[in-house]
Amino acid sequence: MASIYDIKPAFQNLLRPDVRCLAARGVTANQVTLAALGLSLLVGMSLLYTDWHPGIYWAIPLAMLLRMALNAIDGMLAREHGMKSALGGILNELCDVVSDTVLYLPFALLPDASPWLVVGIVIAAIISEMAGVVAVQIGASRRYDGPMGKSDRAFVFGALAMGVAAGWSGEWINWLFGAVLLLLAVTILNRCRQALAEVRP
Fold this sequence. Notes:
Radius of gyration: 17 Å
Strand content: under 5%
Helix content: over 70%
Distance between the termini: 22 Å
Structural class: mainly alpha
Shape: globular
Order of helices and strands: HHHHHHH
């Protein structure tokens, strides 16, 4: 099923000159991975301040765009510049899950939002990434199937954050969260189904 993840190769081509420059300067893939995590933690924690103002949500789309670039860069450094490692594989998976969690949970504090829907999205997002990783355990490739993969979630929450920062509010937010949760359920099923199809004799 189609996903924003499908445009990743074109995005990587834009970043390739910068990746070569970073590699020449001795920057490692793991350093970039940890920088992306640090950015997410910083932005996520800033949204928990008691003096809440909608404008602070402008930080989320900016952070998600930068994080997407950093994630692409760390992968290219690992694959194309000989920096692939077991530690890198662990950091890549764990940091992505932690970053998503700290960036999405603050949406539960929105005045019109259902905290339970947001928590449900975070849990389902973790399960969807686990489904993608478990595919490797049964002999399939790491699954990135949509329709609500990591990049798709970043797009939805980034767009929502811009709306919140612009002053949008209302019960429609919960309908959006419900749709995301439903699409995450479909994503989990798709990843499991595709993994099984890949190893089926």
